Amino acid sequence: DVARRTGNGSAFRLWFGPNELGILRAAVVTERHEGGSAEEVAACADPRTMPSRGRRGDYYIQLGRGLAQEPAQRGRAVEMLARAERLAPMRTRMDPYVRQTVESLWHDAGGSALRDMARRMGISTV
């Protein structure tokens, strides 16, 4: 309720509001292994209105991690993680959960985009 009433704010770089709530909700469903609903629970967030590239990257990280849990959504998961990497390369590449997700996707699905991402993360030298 508070997030809805206050709107998206950036006081003290806390980024409180519906955008942050969407990112956090996506992270929670992913941690609960219900990542297929990550997009649905993050619907209140609009990455276009996020003033920080890092927060936009976090949004796509959480969507990518969640979508990766659904075999039919793995292609979209890679797209989301690639967006996150373009927006916030170091944050994305160094995040241990992203690294784990990319490694898992790479071993399960393969593909040149995943191979290149894994190489940039230092996961693969192939």
Description:
With 126 residues, this protein is mainly α. Helices cover 63% and strands 0% of the residues. The chain is built from 8 helices and no strands. Helix 4 (53-67) packs antiparallel against helix 5 (74-87) and helix 7 (96-108) runs antiparallel to helix 8 (112-120).
Q: How many beta strands in the DSSP annotation?
A: 0
Order of helices and strands: HHHHHHHH
**Sequence stretches where pLDDT stays below 50 over 5 or more residues:** none
Largest sheet: none
Helix-strand makeup class: mainly alpha
Alpha plus pi helix count: 8
Our estimate of the beta-strand percent is: under 5%
State the helical fraction.
55-70%
Mean pLDDT score, rounded?
A: 87
For the termini, the CA-CA separation is: 49 Å
- The 3D shape can be described as globular
Please compute the radius of gyration using only Cα atoms.
Answer: 15 Å
